[in-house]
Amino acid sequence: MNIQMPSEAEIHQTFIRGEAAVVQLFATMGQQVSDLARQFEKQAEALKELEARLSKNSHNSSKPPSSDGYGKVKRTESLRPVGQRPNGGQKGHEGHTLTASESPARMEIHEVLQCEQCSAKLFDIEPQAHEERQVFDIPAIHIEVTAHRAEIKICPECGAKNRGQFPNDVKQTVQYGNGVKTWASYFTNQHFIPIERTTQIFEDLVSHRISEATVLNASSELSEQVGPAIDAVSAQLKQSTVVNFDESGLRVKGKLHWLHVASTDRLTYYDIHAKRGTDAIDDAGILTEFSGTAVHDHWKPYFKYENCRHALCNAHHLRELKYIEKQYQQSWAASMSTLLLEIKAKVEKTTEPASLLPPSQLQTFEKRYDEIVKQGFDVNPREPPKVGEDKKRGRTKQTPPFNLLIRLKDFKSQVLAFMYDPSVPFDNNQAERDVRMMKVKQKVSGCFRTEEGAEQFGRARAYISTARKNAVNIFKAIKDAFGGNPFIPSA
Prior knowledge:
Blueprint: H1 8-55, E1 152-154, E2 161-163, H2 178-190, H3 195-206, H4 212-225, H5 227-238, E3 242-252, E4 255-263, E5 268-273, H6 278-284, E6 293-296, E7 309-312, H7 314-328, H8 331-348, H9 359-379, H10 400-410, H11 412-415, H12 417-420, H13 429-445, H14 451-469, H15 474-482
Parallel strand pairs: 3-6, 6-7
Antiparallel strand pairs: 1-2, 3-4, 4-5
């Protein structure tokens, strides 16, 4: 049997074809490995972004506590260091111990009628002393009806009919007085008690159930009566040296509206608007005429108002730095938090409230600030633009640490405004506290049914908040407003 052996040329061609197939196979495998690596990289980035998003809550970001939900770990951390302010009454806190009154409204004498040992009669025996115990209580409350009768007289000389004048606030044949209006407005606007429950309180306490329309009308009238006070607050805020600004979502007629607040430690102004940006700020009319220092979070529309200086809330920065330290394990974030709190402590310990830190101290803090920002950029370089299939329209998305570093670098003077000017607060907590009570109202009621009702409540709350900041009794302030003499803060 003859076997024909392949020629050397045929063997060489077979070897070349096999080598090419192997090369093609490795090339295909390399492309597949590269594609898998790129896919794993995308998934890793998406997973990291998702973990970062899920790890944010109210104590390490600007998210409100209401967004934490029931499924998240209970908030146990605070920006305040442990032991800085222990639980209970703080040093200097004014106590409220019940003490005996020197002039009680009523006195009851409990006589001794007979001797406890021999039963002798003691009617006519004068007491040698008294042992006194006082009871603080509320007397029975009831609706009191006052009938106003205006005399009608006929002049015997000319026959003209003359009638006596009713008081200015007595306009209807039957009506409620300012006391009922004050109670209704106090319950609904100060303590956020729903309208129906307010009518129940009247029925339980004074055995007279008012209508829901009466409660609504009382709040509407209060909103009108406090007009001079609101105008005075607006005017004084425009002339203030430092004002805190903030905004928060509010539901009106089932739609998202925005509550805007401008406040100081003695003034509060609210404005409710369908928009969040410059249209709403312009309508409020305070920032447009304000030339002092505006304290706020880093929301871009605020910076459009260049007639005033700006200061950023460092409580927001501390929460974001805390998040970066834990989520990304970057030590520069902890260093920046320490520095900001150290500067705050130095400013608070200055010998005089309005004194500045020494220039050498300012330069030292500025240098440390710049060094920490540089350390942050060393570990957080700018993300390069995407190429090929990964390229997207617009700017390349950067990491949260990089974005915060950009803010700390570009807005250094606004971040450290409290260091340069002792009258500027370290944070924007004043405005956030003033927003919080309006959010409580929303939690109780769900939403406002009308824009008019929301605006009326905002005016009433601004008046109440301003009165409380000036140590004015809230109930009296509301009653005075119904009497035509609302509380107006001094300039």
